[in-house]
Amino acid sequence: MAAACGRVLLWGARPARPGRWFSSSTCRMSSDGETTKFQPPPKPVIIDKQRQREERRFLSPEFIPPRGRTDPLKFYMERRDMIQRRKVFSIPEFYVGSILAVTTADPYADGKTNRFVGICIQRGGRGLGATFVLRNVIEDQGVEICYELYSPRIQEITVLKLEKRLDDNLMYLRDALPEYSTFDMNMKPVPHLDHEEIPVNKVGV
Fold first, then answer.
1. Closest CA to 89 of 151, 39, 142
2. Which of 10, 32, 81, 157 has its CA 20 to 30 A from that of 114?
3. Could you state one GO biological process linked to this protein (predicted)?
């Protein structure tokens, strides 16, 4: 057995005294009497939530240049203005299908502001011309408002429910039942963690 598992090395042939014994054996006995090689334990799996948050970075679609020939100077100037606007105004991450609340400046409204809640049914445009459309049914009447994303009249954009739909365009909600486009104007935000995946609403209309 000693030959199978290796040799035992003794430090010198001196009389026995307290000391250490070293073995070059890398074999162990299994339950059936056969020798097996030593296997190190598995390494622990460390989940870095900060890295997951960085990997799921969102690129707003208006920053993606259109296909075909583009004017590099125009693209550069618009991109610079868009970044400057985002430094003073927070534009959250949202998708078609998300429920938003938009507060805009309105000199004719009480408090000089107007707040509208609705589902985003379309996003369009590029650069500073980016737009999004919100839809809601108020008093049995469908109401849609098209906002310019970088308009200085917009004071706040709040995501009440962050989610996606299977379609990139929900204009067909105009012909659907009102219940698919009806949302409470006093709806409270639904919490969502940054590292969580964006939920997909697969409701059929």
1. 151
2. 81
3. translation
Give tens-digit pLDDT for 62-102.
Answer: 888 777 767 888 888 999 999 999 999 999 999 999 999 99
Task: Tell how many helices (H) and how many strands (E) occur in the chain.
Answer: 3, 11
Which two structure tokens, joined as six digits, stand for 93? 């991450």
Q: Which residues, 6 or more positions from 153, have their beta carbon under 8 angstroms from its beta carbon? A: 104, 105
How far apart are alpha carbons 5 and 24 in whole angstroms? 8
Spatial CB neighbours of 8, under 8 Å, sequence gap ≥ 6: 2, 21, 23, 25
| Amino acid at residue number 112 | K
d(CA 174, CA 13): 96
- CA distances 201 to 134, 170, 198, 204, 205, Å, are 17, 12, 10, 9, 11
